[in-house]
Amino acid sequence: MIRLIGLDPGLRFTGWGVIDVDGNRLRHVADGVIATDGEDSVPERLKTLHDALMALLARLTPDEAAVEETYINRGGASSLKLGYARGVVLLAPALAGLPVTEYGAKTVKKSVVGTGNADKNQVETMVRRLLPAAMVKRADASDALAVAICHAHHRASRSIWAAQGTVQGMVQGPVRAAE
Description:
By secondary structure, the chain is an alpha/beta fold. Helices cover 47% and strands 21% of the residues.
C-alpha cells in the first residue's frame, strides 16, 4: 500500500487530498483546504502556506506527492502570486523528502472522468464515486483528490510497463506527465 497526496495550488486556497492505494483499490484518507488571509502580505501568506503544508505532510505521512499544473488566464500580478504559491506547493513535499510529480489539468480530468474537457462538476462527481467516504466541502479539495487519483492511475501504469519491460529508458523517480 502507498499513500499519495494530491495538491491543487493557490495563494488564497490550496486544496489537498490524501488517498491510500493498494493495487487498484483507492481509499480516502483526508482532504481539505489551506486558506491564507488576503489581508496579510504575500510573504506572510507564503509562510502560512509552507508551514501548514509541512505540518500536514508530517501528520499524514504520504509517500509521494502530485501537484496540478496551473494555467494562467488572469493578469500579470495575479499570475505571479499564483506562481509563488505553486513554488511553495512544489517545494514543501520535496523538502519532506517526497518524490513530486506534476500533472496538467487535462491529464487529471482525463484520468478521473475519461475526457480532458470535463468541467469541475463532472470531476467532483467522479471523485465522490471513486472515493465514497470523501465528504468534500470545497472544489479545491475535490481537485486535489482528483490529482491524487490521477497519480495513482499513472504510477500503476508505469509500474506495469516497467515490470513488462515495455518502456525503454524509463525515467526512474519523479516525472512530469505530458498533456
